[in-house]
Design a protein that fits this description.
heterodimer, A: 127 residues, alpha/beta, five-stranded parallel sheet, B: 534 residues, alpha+beta, five-stranded antiparallel sheet, 18 helices, 23% strand
Chain lengths: 127, 534
């Protein structure tokens, strides 16, 4: 169960080891964390939990991150949901597509220190 | 007709003998001359009157040679026998060939010797023989000569056939031009590759027919074509990748090279060799795509290692003793290097795929340079380096900020990496006018000029030519620094070329290097590509 008082973050990522370290780090920061391991699952959980921020991977089984983002933007709440794309794919087209869907953070995981990532998340959460 | 009797014969005989053209000598049993005719007197060169009573052997001096200095004392059948035949004799003042016939008159002991001078006949005969021999020899020589000529001709024909076969069968297109670059010869492959027959192109200018094009389908400036370079610089032009358009307007990628034809230092034209590298290009593309895919896959475990190490180092799993912390730092640094390498590989693969984008937006070069220097504060502090930054106020131009950042990132990190501890690095960013000479180079455009100077290892002279080559690292730095990838300057050069600028350097081993980058003050042109460089 997510803590109702703290900010809620949904991680949509299929790489278990990365999920583990992210969960640990984010919880240490005092945020509530939920995890989905593919886009389809992530979409369901987002609709249900209305997280304050979604950390979204792109290459995933069942439904990829870009498709999930498109689906999310159809939904009333999802239209304005805050999303950070956290991927290892450098693709300018996808970054531009994400911008058109209101996502301005397109981060390459391996280039980001986790500490800097936390700072960015904090910024997006308006903290 | 008068009747001839024995008597008349006897009375005529001396007269007849005296009229004979053959020399006649009658000797007694002791070889004393009893009778000679006029012909003998002429042959021996003595008057007939003095000959009578003389020894026959003395009258024809050298005849005695045949008897090995022992002239027989008496006439005998045997002695006459030996005298009979052809002899080479020495007469008064001359040599002659005489044919000798003898008759022994047994009952009187006398002998009749008949000598005929056959010198002329034999001479001409010999001459004829000699002439014949000469002719034979000439004939033989002529035949030999003909034979030699034939065999040379055959050899030549074989050589020509071989050359034709080689030129015909090599896969590379080969075109021979004169100094005006007019086509003089094309091999089968050239006909096949271009779709033109030699007969269609003979005498036409090669660049007019097959104008090479670059990656962006722009015609290659004439001065940069290999044929031009070979003819004007009289040296083999470096191999370059171009596109040619066939007769049917289809395009193919090609490697083209050219060499001047110099005959005794006189320029006769050029040979252009080119090939269709469509397949190689496809393989290259597949390879590059593979690298790109593999690099993306590599980033995931690298992220995992990086983030976990970072967590451990930040004490998230409890404080660690100094030693394990030190080891973790090593792991973390190695991981960073790996991330950098993967990024560099990805950039290279994009550069080679031609898929990297140029997205101009308002860019402040000075701000970007400052940020990059700031990002290196850690390295600067560790080596106790001094960085002198000189920034002129320069206008904001339309440029891809990310590309500018990659240029500064590589040049500055190189300067820091190759500086000795407590060394000095200078960074100078300013505008420069077209025509200004900077670092031995004349600027082609009004530019934003960035100059990075270090007083480090410098680049050995033999390595300077290769410094922008992919994966190249000079020996002197390979020994001292193991972290470089050999990709940085290649990436810088590719970006600068792509953005219409220039990069060059001056360097002395042991003294340091200065790198110059000029980027157009007019800004960069937009280029759509699938992927931005990272």
């Amino acid at each position: 169960m997510m803590d109702t008082t703290s900010k809620k973050i949904l991680i949509v990522e299929d790489e278990v080891a990365l999920v583990k370290v992210l969960v640990s780090k984010l919880e240490r920061e005092g945020w509530s964390v939920a995890v989905a391991y593919n886009g389809a699952e992530g979409l369901e959980m987002a609709k249900e939990l209305h997280p304050d921020l979604i950390l979204l991977d792109i290459i995933m089984p069942r439904m990829d991150g870009m498709t999930m983002l498109k689906e999310l933007r159809r939904n009333g709440w999802g239209k304005t949901a805050k999303v950070i794309l956290l991927t290892n794919l450098s693709d300018e087209f996808k970054a531009e597509e994400a911008e058109r869907m209101g996502v301005f953070d397109y981060l390459v995981k391996s280039n980001w220190k986790i500490a800097d990532l936390i700072t960015r998340i904090r910024g997006r959460l308006g903290e | 007709m008068p009747t001839v009797t024995k008597n008349t014969l006897e009375s005529w005989c001396p007269a007849a003998v005296s009229m004979l053209r053959d020399a006649v000598v009658v000797v007694d049993r002791h070889w004393s001359i009893v009778f000679t005719n006029q012909a003998y007197a002429e042959l021996s060169g003595q008057p007939a009157s003095t000959l009578e009573g003389q020894s026959f052997w003395k009258s024809v001096a050298s005849l005695s040679d045949f008897y090995s200095q022992e002239t027989p004392n008496e006439v005998s059948e045997e002695a006459l026998q030996r005298l009979t035949g052809e002899h080479d004799v020495r007469l008064k003042n001359r040599r002659a060939i005489v044919e000798i016939a003898t008759r022994y008159v047994g009952e009187t002991g006398q002998a009749v010797i008949l000598l005929r001078n056959v010198t002329l006949e034999r001479g001409s005969e010999r001459q004829v023989i000699e002439r014949n021999q000469e002719l034979e020899e000439t004939k033989r020589a002529m035949l030999n000569l003909l034979e030699d000529l034939n065999s040379e001709k055959e050899k030549l024909a074989a050589e020509i056939a071989k050359d034709d076969a080689i030129l015909g069968s090599i896969g590379e297109g080969l075109v021979v031009t004169d100094v005006e670059r007019r086509i003089q010869f094309m091999n089968n492959a050239a006909e096949h590759l271009t779709g033109y027959k030699f007969s269609e192109l003979k005498g036409k200018k090669w660049p007019d027919v097959m104008m090479p094009r670059d990656d962006h389908d722009e015609p290659v400036p004439i001065r940069e074509t290999s044929a031009y370079e070979a003819i004007n610089n009289r040296r083999r032009a470096i191999r370059r990748r171009v596109y040619y358009v066939r007769k049917n307007r289809s395009k193919f990628p090609s490697f083209s090279t050219a060499a001047p034809i110099l005959v005794q230092d006189k320029l006769n034209g050029a040979i252009v060799v080119f090939s269709d590298i469509t397949r190689e290009a496809e393989i290259d593309k597949a390879k590059t795509e593979f690298v790109s895919l593999a690099s993306h896959q590599l980033r995931t475990p690298l992220s995992t290692i990086g983030w976990y190490t970072e967590m451990l180092l930040s004490g998230d799993a409890g404080a660690l003793p100094a030693e394990p912390t030190e080891y973790l730092r090593e792991i973390y640094q190695a991981n960073r290097r790996m991330v950098d390498l993967v990024n560099a590989l990805l950039n290279v693969s994009r550069i080679e795929l031609g898929t990297f984008a140029v997205a101009p937006e308002p860019a402040n070069y000075v701000e970007i340079a400052k940020t990059v220097v700031k990002e290196h504060q850690h390295d600067i502090a560790v080596k106790n380096l001094k960085v002198v930054e000189r920034y002129q106020e320069i206008p904001v131009v339309q440029a891809d900020r990310n590309l500018v950042r990659i240029i500064y990132q590589n040049l500055i990190s190189n300067a820091l990496k190759y500086s000795p501890p407590k060394g000095e690095v200078m960074l100078d960013v300013r505008t420069a006018k077209k025509g200004e000479v900077v670092g031995n180079k004349t600027l082609k455009h009004d530019s934003i000029l960035s100059v990075v100077t270090d007083k480090g290892f410098g680049i050995p002279e033999e390595a300077q030519r290769k410094i922008f080559t992919k994966l190249f690292r000079a020996d002197n730095v390979k020994e001292k620094d193991t972290t470089g990838t050999g990709l940085g300057l290649y990436i810088v050069k590719s970006i600068v070329d792509h953005a219409g600028g220039e990069v060059w350097f001056t360097s002395r081993e042991g003294k340091g290097s200065t790198f110059f980058v000029s980027l157009p003050l007019a800004g960069m042109k937009r280029k759509v590509g699938a992927r931005a460089l990272t």
